[in-house]
Amino acid sequence: MNPTVKTTFSVCTNEIDASCRVPLLALFGGAALWLVAGLALGIGAIMSFHKPDLFADCQFLTFGRSQAAANDLLLYGFCIPAALGVLLWIFSRLSQTPLALPIVPVVAANLWHLGVLIGTIAILTGNSTGHLWLEYPRPAAVLLFAAFLLTAVTAAATFGFRQQRDLFPAHWFLFAALLLFPWIYSTANLFLVSNQVPRGVVQAIIGWWFGNNLIFVWLALAGVGMAFYFLPKIAGKPLGNSGYAITGFLTLLFFGTWAGIPQGAPVPAWMPTLSSVMTALTLVPLIAIALVLWQTIVRNGFKCGGGPFCFIKFGMLCFIASTILYISLACPRYSRVLEFTWFGTAQTQLQLLGFFAMILFGAIYEILPRIMEAPLPFPKAAKAQFWITGLGILLFVVPLAVGGLEQGMKVRDAAVPFADASAVALKFLRVSTTGQLLILLGSLPLVLNLFVMTIRWKVALLKTLISAIKAPLPEAEVKA
Amino acid sequence: MKTGIGVFIAAVAAIGLSWCGLVLGPQLQLGGEGITTVLNSTDEYPLQPTGAENLGQQVYRANGCAACHTEQVRQTGVTCELTLTSLGVYKAADFTAFARSLFVLPELAKYTNALADAINGWNGDMPKTILTTPDKTIVEEMANRLKAVGVKFDLRILATGPDISRGWGSRQSVAADYLYAQPVQLGNLRAGPDLANVGVRKPDMNWQLIHLYAPKAVDSSSTMPPFRYLFELRKIGSTPSPDALKLPSEFAPAQGYEVVPTTDAKNLAAYLASLKATVPLYEAPFTPVIAAKP
Which of A166, A187, A200 has its CB closest to that of B175? Predict the structure, then answer.
């Protein structure tokens, strides 16, 4: 963290970065491709609203399937594996030791990407499980679970070998994220995708619990953890008050994990009530995290100039906005209007793309030149990505949220025909699709930078290999 | 938080607590739920779905219908309605005078204006709703007084809320409604209308099939995409298929062709037509309209 320490360990740092190279490329490479695929599929899905006839004869791209597949590609295809890659790097950097068992995450990355491929094909061919965020059927789920565990083992081993015994705030958040995912994913799959599923509405409750813990809590833990590492590191200043950080961490875990039961749900009233109270209490971690950010970013007056710092700052602003939207959705008064509208979609996409994906973009751009020991091939494209994606996210999310609000007001007034409410939302969808196109365009520089660097590295490897083969044997060996 | 074990314990405690509360708790409370009985009746609820309806639910799942449709009705409250059906030996004027005499009752104080509006200038038309309030005790008080003088009336409990005013159901959805649903797909977006009672609104299988094939053929304002892949467009053989859709001319296939639903489409239509939650339950009471006006 501190510059003098950095120079002392500079030799060691190179070694750490080199140890992360292959696992991280395996995780990031596939993730970047899934990101582009997911964004493109998401645009394809929403086309059903602009031109309902478009996929009338093509069952694979009907809205219900392509929308679910696109969302899962963003979450399981991009967000989680890319975050795992960043997490491994942060763990080995904070531990000041090379990545332990570097071959394990390479295997895990391939298993994970295979799982995503199987899951996506399953959804598009009509074999989804029908549970939100848990659409992947059992074969894909088993692969994802195994891959996550393998990566977590590597992370834990690296953590165990750490030279620097102190824990940083980033550690708490990322460590809890490593623990949370296997727990919720196995619970949800064992309950909902097994041969003995619970009867009735318990399924929906477990589904909500899982969805909340993944989309809200897991992404918050991993995203805030990454931001708490990179923001002070890039700015060269210490992280704000660690008392606030600890409050944010504990309250996020103890309150956030109870959120997610919708207010109008057909379940005994104690569940939505308790969930609503707990969601309101997530204002505490939100304020605590915001204070830490304030102390780290604003007080330092660090200028980012379009680099990784900008991405992460933007991501954290979206985190604050998205959490406020989430709390408003859980407030009974507002949820009567906002529930079942596009407002919910806006919140989810802000969380996935505005908050989490943006932080990942920043983190990947920060890490890539280090692990590849080469500058980014297209730094200007990376800068452009920030502006294009940022604008895209605003254009995507704001109209959806406003449209959802207007739709909700119309649905709530029984005198207004339902078709009018749908028509109002359609108007806003036209704008939000433009935003989606921009986000897709903005994701291309990432793929370009990542793959050009990978290919250059592979070509260099090949050249070394060929020259090693062609090189005349040393005389000593010839004689022998 | 200086050590890994502290973080570990905090995380396990937090996740474990929420697991107990929102996974184990609901499973203990609702997991053993069985068939229940309809309120004020011995009829069982819900009914076991037929094979076609179960298969149709799988088509609903496979095509992600829940991405745009919810299957749950929300309710904001209840209201009690007192409706006169017969005055017995009295005339309308007698009743008006009698009702005015009740205005002095302290418990009725809040409702005298509404009562006065209802009976002023009333010419004796039946049935006549004289009192609408969410307070059941007031209505029961009034009912006792009417009973004492031999006036006949209906006392009805109605669910209220925008969903119910839209005709999407006669009461809120409750856990018992989903006993046989597998998977339970409540949905989280209403790009299209709620389907919890679509079988009540549109019980006709042919309507359902035509709506799936060409939504605009039955509702010009529909934004639903057509699901033509659930149907087969084929040349009419020696005899036309009895299942062929009877489509309006602008949606009809070319001369000599017919549109025949696949098994999936038929099952899906059967499932949709089966979606109805029309009976009152202990936890969601209301007075069914049919029972009140036979």
Answer: A200
The predicted-structure confidence for B201-250, as pLDDT tens digits, reads as follows 999 999 999 999 999 999 999 999 999 999 999 999 899 999 999 999 99
**Mean pLDDT for chain B?**
90
- The arithmetic mean of pLDDT across residues A378-397, rounded, is 96
CATH fold of the domain at A1-166: Four Helix Bundle (Hemerythrin (Met), subunit A) (1.20.120)
Q: Give B135→chain A minimum CA distance, Å.
A: 21
DSSP A212-228: IIIIIIIHHHHHHHHHH
Write the Ramachandran bin of B193: left for phi over 0, alpha for psi from -120 to 50, otherwise beta. beta
Give the per-residue pLDDT at A1. Answer: 42
Cα–Cα separations (whole angstroms), residue A426 to A24, A38, B153, B162, B163: 41, 22, 48, 21, 21
Comparing B53-67, B121-135, B271-285, the range with the smallest average pLDDT is: B121-135
Is the ipTM above a cut-off of 0.90? yes
A19 lies within 8 A of chain B by CB: no
Best to test chain B binding among A201, A275, A326 (most B CBs inside 10 Å):
A201
| Structure tokens, A241 | 């008050």
Please, are residues A324 and A365 in contact by the beta-carbon 8 Å criterion? no
Structural domains of chain B, with CATH: 44-74+167-274 (1.10.760.10), 77-160 (3.30.1390)
